[in-house]
Structure formats: C-alpha cells, structure tokens
Amino acid sequence: MKKLPLMILGILIAAQFAVPFSMIRSRENILRNGELFRFKTRPIDPVDPFQGRYVRLGFENAYVPCSRQVKKKLQLAKSSVYALLETDAEGFAYFSSTEIEKPNKGDYLKTMYIGHRPSWNDKTKTLELEIKIDIPFDHFYMDEAKAPRAERLVRDSTRSTNCWAAVRILDGKAVIEDVFAEGQSLRDLAAGD
Amino acid sequence: MKRKVSAKHTQWLKKELPILEGEGVLSPETSGRLKTYYDENTASGMNWAVAAFSILGSLLMGLGIILLFAHNWDGLARPTRAVLSFCPLLIGAALSLLAVVKNGGTALRESAGLFHSLAVGAAIALIGQTYHLPSDTPAFLLTWALLIMPLMFLLRSTGSYLIYLALACGWSGVAQDTYGQAAEFWLLMVPPIIRLVYLIRKDRHAPDTLLSLWGILFALCISTGIVFEKTVPGLWIVAYSALLSGAGLLGMHLYGDREGWGNPLKTFGIIGMAMLAYLFTWAEMWDEIGWSYARSGWRHRPWGVWMDGGITFVFLAGWAVAAVKAFRRNSIETVTLAVFPISGIFCFLAGSTASNTDLLNALIFNGFMLFLGIMYIVLGCRNTKLRQLNGGMAVLSLLLVTRFFDADLGFLVRGIVFIILGACFLTANLVMARRKKQQEVIP
Fold first, then answer.
1. Chain B closest CA to A105's CA: distance in Å?
2. Which pTM value belongs to this model?
3. B369: left (phi over 0), alpha (psi -120 to 50) or beta
4. pLDDT interval class at B278 (50, 70, 90)
5. pLDDT at A160
6. Is A140 within 8 Å of chain B by CB?
7. Which residue does chain B place closest to A30, by CA atoms?
8. Backbone torsions φ then ψ of A132, nearest 5 degrees
C-alpha cells in the first residue's frame, strides 16, 4: 500500500534535488570554461525579498546598434535576441550588434529585447536604431552589512576611477565572477573599510 | 467509522458513571453499557494544541532558515555554499519520508509538508544567491510551486496546499506583469481543485476541508482579476458576480444553514457580494464598458477576448448549477444570491449596448444594497441572530454614509445622521441581547 506513495515521493525528492543541482552544474561550467569579459558598471544597492542584499550593477552600454531587418522581426517586448560581444582598446567589453538567429562564430550573449530608441551616428551622419537589451548579470549578492558600504565606496571611487564587473560567458549564458573598483574586489574593498 | 469525542469528555463521563451508579440514577448494566459504548465506538480527536505548535514550530524554523541563509555568508567558499544550500532540502525530504513511512498523524504530516515546501524555495534561492543569478521572480515561483505540488497529495498536508496556492497566486501577479499574461494560472489551479473535491467528498466539515476552501476562495478571488486580459472593460463585473454568488449558493447547498467559519463558501459569497454591490453603486464603475471599448496593444493578446469570455462562461455555468441545486423559494437569502449575477449581467449588457446608462446601473445597485441591508436586519430580528442584524445594519449604514458624503450636506446634518445610526446600532444590539437572554430562560 505504501509502496506507490513512497515511489512517487522518491521521484519528487530526486526532482527537487535535480533542479538546484542542474543550476549549479550549468553555472560552474560557465565559470570554468567561459570566456572572461570586463564590463564597465555602476553599482546601486537594493534588497531582494527572497535572496537577500545585493549590489545592482548599472551597465553603460545596455543599448545596442540594431539593423532595420532585425528590428522588424522584434515586434514583442521580451523577444529573444543575441547580442554580439567585442572588446575595446582599453580591454572593456561592449555589445557591437544584435542578431535574431544564434551566431555561428564570435562571442555572444543570449538575452531579451526590451525597447528601442533612435540614435545619431556621427561617422555616417545618419539616424540609426538602437535596441535596449536585458543584461542578465546585474545582481551581485553581498553580506547585508557590506552591500550598502560597498555601494558607498564605489560611488565615491567611480568619480575618478573605473569600476567593472568580471563576467564569464559561454554559449550565450553569463555568470558574474566578481566586481572590481579601483582594481580591487568589491568584497575586499567593503571588508577593509 | 468511530465517532470523534474528545478524551477530556470521555474521561469526565467515566468518572461520573460510578457516582451516578452509587446514587441509583443508573443501573450497573446501563453504566457498563455506556462505558463499553464509549470505549468501542468513539475515538479521541487529534490534539489541536500539539498539531498547532508543531506546525508553528516548523513554519518558524523554515522561515528562520531562509532568513539565516538570505543573510549572505561571504566567509564560505562557493562550493561549500552550494553544498550547504541542499541542507534544508535534505531535512525536509527526510521529514516527508518519515511521515509517509510511519503513516504519521496530522502534526507530523503538516510539519513535514510545511518545512519541506519552504526548504525547496530556500534551496533554489540560495543557489541563485551563490551564483549571482538575476531575480527572475516568475520562473522562481513557478519552479517552486511545481516542485512542491505533489506534497499536498502525498502528505495530505493542508500547509503544502496553502503554500502552493500562495505561490500560484503570487506567480499570476508577477507573470502578468513580466510576460503580459498569466493564463497558465488556470492550469495551476487544477491540482488544488482535485484535492479539494476529494476532501469535500471525504468529510466536508473537517477543519482541513474548511481551511482548504478558505484558501482556494481567496486565491481565486485575487487571481481572477489579475489574470483577466482586460480586453473587454467591465466583463469582470459579470465574472466576479457569478463567482461570488456561485460560491454562496454552493455553500448553502453543501453546508445548509451553517454560518461563519463552518461555511466558508456562504460567508465568502455573501461578504463578497455585499462588497461588490457596494462598488457597483458608483456610476464610474459603469463608465465605458463593453465590447465597443475593447482594448488592444502589446499588453493585450488577440485571444484575450476568448480567454476572458471563456472564464466568465465557466463561472456563469458554475453559478447556474449551484443556483439550481441550492434554490429554495422560501429562502430569501438564496433568491438574493441567485438574482445578484442576473442584475450584474443586465447592467453590463445595458452599459455595453446603450449610452448614458451609468446612472441607471448605479441606481439599481443602490437599490440592491438598500434591499440587502433591510433583508439582513429583518432576518436577524426574526432569527434572533446578532451577526445577521449587525451585518444588515453595517450594509445600510455604509450605503447611507457614502451617499450622504456624495450629497455634499453640511456638518450638522451629517453629525445628526451619524448619531442616529450609532443609536440604532446600540438599541438594536441591546434589544436583541435581552431577547436572546429571555429565550435562554424560557426554552
């Protein structure tokens, strides 16, 4: 009599363990094998009711150039889109263009289309289009005592120096590794205050 | 099945029997037969205090663990944190296995259900925190809800069922906001409805059945409004009227004359109907409703009209079945509940097809509220029920006070009206209390 409920409970518990386990495996794979990119950022400090205190990272280049053909296919907000990645002369990553289909070569990030705006291209002297994309690595969780302090320190330091996030990207998926201000990890910076 | 009599009462009776026997009130045979009857045919109910404290304990522990882990643990290495995230889940799973293997009592099953349900959410949230995942709240709530859904059946746990309902309800809100629609909410409602039907068939008066009914009524009432695509303005008037009236009528059919906590459907239906009728007394509610004002845009899907229409139709069908089953001509309460959605449909159709009907519709529901108030005052006086009398007076006072504020009258007139209403409340309660006392003295 008890065999069936026990079997179902066993399957359920296995599924309950499998979900977080697969989350860990996928992220660990990205952290080990992913390409490292540095993104210029500006942190702010809110609270997640479920996960605790974190530093939200505001990225400078959430707007990406987009061709008219790609925009035509992006009718609904939250549509899936691929943002291609390149690195500038200072070694910081930026999104160079967008594609609807998965790119065959180069590094890219799988993300969502949020909105668009027109932008003036100084080189070609033409009005072009930029789309806003969702940046899926804008949360950096910290100790609840350290997070506001880190935010304050970074706010002061970003006036004169750069602040960036080190992000690993693999097959379009990204995991944030660390956040740096004045060349120092945000955790060390906040702990040393 | 054994009758449930509390152990305290049985012990009292067993102490009384020899005394009654000694004083010649009962013969030794009768006394023996009474003792045998209570030994063989009754069982003590569960100890509610023990169950309540076990449930409260596991709830506090579950929440405590979430808070403890939400406080970030920077000192630990990433792999250690990942492994530790599984700890609450491991304890929850062990408790659930113990409850199933031992076929545990209510206290064990409910504690395991609550702790296990919270542990699943804690594990996912902790992994999210460890790997700095962005807060995808709809995906998080949906995964959590689906992973705990079978617990309500396996552990027969009302706690798991209520957490699942809260998650489904929360998901409907955030999904509607994030994706623009949350029609899948109706699929999420299927498992709790199946459990509820099973409970009602087993024992409709059991506390877990009543608690489950309260839970699903709240969830349906909150989420129906959220998941409506709102493509046809005002269709919610018909849907909510049918839902609340149907609930009230079903309560009368299933639970008869029981009231309050013992009849969640009726209580919810009648209070909901009064609140809805009060909303309908404003002309603004009837402004620009119907198909001619149908909305479009990226937030509204083309199938939204059909979805909303379908949900409204299902509610109306449920209301019609409940009305047929519960309808009694001699019960004014049943007739009022049955008539309420008809008035709603009539006014919605009038507002949709003709212009300038806002005032007429508002007037109809002002009349309905007036009738509702008077009906409950009369019923309260006739049945000597303070709850009905005060409910009726509350409805009537609310209507009068609101309309007096609308009428832009001076402070003096308003003051006098408030004093008269207060005096009516006090007098009616005093008279009723005296009448009740007299009835107790002269049975």
1. 26
2. 0.80
3. alpha
4. very high
5. 46
6. yes
7. B131
8. -90, 130
Shortest distance between the Cα of B156 and any Cα of chain A, in A, equals: 11
A170 touches chain B (CB under 8 A): no
Q: What pLDDT, in 10s, does the model give residues B62-103?
A: 677 766 665 656 666 777 778 888 888 998 999 999 999 888
Q: Cβ B72–A48 below 8 Å, yes or no?
A: no
* Per-residue tokens: B28: 């030794």
Q: Which of B125, B134, B179 sits opposite A139 (nearest CB)?
A: B134
Q: B96 vs A146: CB contact, 8 Å cut-off?
A: no
Low-confidence ranges of chain A (pLDDT < 50): 160, 193
Mean pLDDT, chain B, integer: 84
pLDDT in tens, B205-216: 888 899 999 999
Task: Kindly list the distances between the CA atom of residue A64 and the CA atoms of A104, A109, A165, B76, B198, in Å, as whole numbers in the listed order.
Answer: 19, 12, 19, 37, 55
CB pairs under 8 A between A and B: 107
Lowest-confidence range among A43-52, B126-135, B282-291, B378-387? Answer: A43-52
Give residue B164's pLDDT band: very low, low, confident or very high (50, 70, 90): very high
Instruction: Give the residue extent of every domain in chain A.
Output: 63-134
Probe site for chain A from B65, B76, B116, B131 (most A CB atoms < 10 A): B131
Give pLDDT tens digits for A45-65.
555 555 556 677 777 777 888
Residues of B in contact with A76 (CB under 8 A): 298
Test B97 with A175 for CB contact under 8 angstroms: no
d(CA B258, CA B210): 12
Nearest chain A alpha carbon to B102: A2
Nearest CA in chain A to B179: A78
Please give, rounded to a whole number of angstroms, the shortest distance from the CA of B101 to a CA of chain A: 7
Q: Which residue has the tokens 């007098």?
A: B427
CB neighbour class for B420 (10 Å; exposed up to 12, middle 13-18, buried from 19): exposed
| Residue, of B231 and B99, whose pLDDT is higher | B99
| Gap between the Cα atoms of B187 and B349, Å rounded | 30
What is the DSSP track for A78-119? T-EEEEEEEE-TTS-EEEEEEESSPPSSS-EEEEEEEEEEEE
pLDDT at position B51, please? 66
With an 8 Å Cβ cutoff, are B134 and A52 in contact? no
Instruction: Quote the Cα angle for B255-B260-B265, to 5°.
Output: 50
Q: Do the Cβ atoms of B128 and A144 come within 8 Å?
A: no
Please write the tens of the pLDDT for every residue from B303-336.
777 888 899 999 999 999 999 988 776 788 888 8
Helix axes of B158-179 and B106-130: crossing angle, nearest 10 degrees: 30
Contact A2 B100 (CB under 8 A): yes
